[in-house]
Amino acid sequence: MSPAQDDLDIAALLERGRTLAAPVLRAAVDRLAAPMDTVAAYHFGWIDAEGRPSAGDGGKAVRPALALLSAEVPGSPPEVGVPGAVAVELVHNFSLLHDDLMDGDEQRRHRDTVWKVHGPAQAILVGDALFALANEILLESGSVEGGRAARRLASASRKLIDGQAQDLAFEHRDRVTVQECLQMEGNKTGALLACAVSIGAVLGGADEATADTLEEYGHHLGLAFQAVDDLLGIWGDPEATGKQAWSDLRQRKKSLPVVAALAAEGPAARRLAELLAADAKARAALGEESADFDEAEFALRAELIEEAGGRTWTADEARRQHARALTVLDRVAMPDRVRRNLVALADFVVVRQK
């Protein structure tokens, strides 16, 4: 298969996820009381800040694509996975609304974030509402499969929140080990992506062993996904990512490239540690955790991280986790076409630019 055909197939898988999930997602948002319905519609890119219809970027839609594909693993049609796809998207966007506020992010998907436009209170309320809707969507069928799916989503949501708490705590620590960082990212990103690739299978009638193995595949895929995100958070093109240049450095994130660089030997690692320690000390003394630097300072930190090997290590880790995901996938019986698509989505995760 040619690279152009690969791109076409991935685009089709992602578009299928959007197309099948969108009507149910919009109907769920319509249940919200005003003005939460409007605020949520803005967040999803359906309207602009003035309430006019918009064709904004709705995100990569990897999770819905995985949920629909996983429904096909036990032989069910992809439509069976739609409630799972919608529920996972609702929880994912609940986390984005809250994360943007906690992190002080002013841009997402090339637009002002919800808290910036509608205020922190609405960002919190709408996030809570999306979380509640996710469980409602899964449970309203009253089926055994819906209950099984809801249990998996609840467990993944709790891990996601654990991961966000760990991420915030790391910002105030001088040192974080690589293993701690991987554990945090396995919770914050891996858990929900793992849920996405098992929840459709559960709704499609798969047994627990199959769902557990798909979840293991999704966990490793989530770690690969986050490793790439960490690279983009420092070296990504703002035009592609929709975020500020050096966004993770501005937030003092202890992401994988930073942690791996600090764990290395050599003058670049030591200089980076000195800069971060001095920064933390100054912020503690002044009480200005949002203090910013000029672009040259961020460029220097990025250069030191790269020189210390943090960039290379993180790229290698993305490839390692991708390989582990594919190895796990070999343990699951499924139609060849479904397997090829799951492999293609895994490949897409590690080569994306946004």
Descriptive report:
This protein has 16 helices and two strands. The chain has 354 residues and is mainly α. It has a single domain (3-351), classed as Farnesyl Diphosphate Synthase (Orthogonal Bundle), CATH 1.10.600.10. A hairpin with a 2-residue loop joins strand 1 and strand 2 (111-112). Helix 7 (144-170) runs antiparallel to helix 8 (178-203) and helix 8 (178-203) crosses helix 9. The longest helix has 28 residues, at 3-30. The two termini are 24 Å apart.
Topology record:
Blueprint: H1 3-30, H2 36-43, H3 62-72, H4 82-103, E1 107-108, E2 111-112, H5 114-118, H6 120-139, H7 144-170, H8 178-203, H9 208-235, H10 238-241, H11 247-250, H12 256-262, H13 267-286, H14 295-307, H15 310-329, H16 336-351
Antiparallel strand pairs: 1-2
Helix pairs in contact: 1-3, 1-4, 1-16, 2-6, 3-4, 3-8, 3-16, 4-6, 4-7, 4-8, 7-8, 8-9, 9-15, 9-16, 12-14, 12-15, 13-14, 15-16
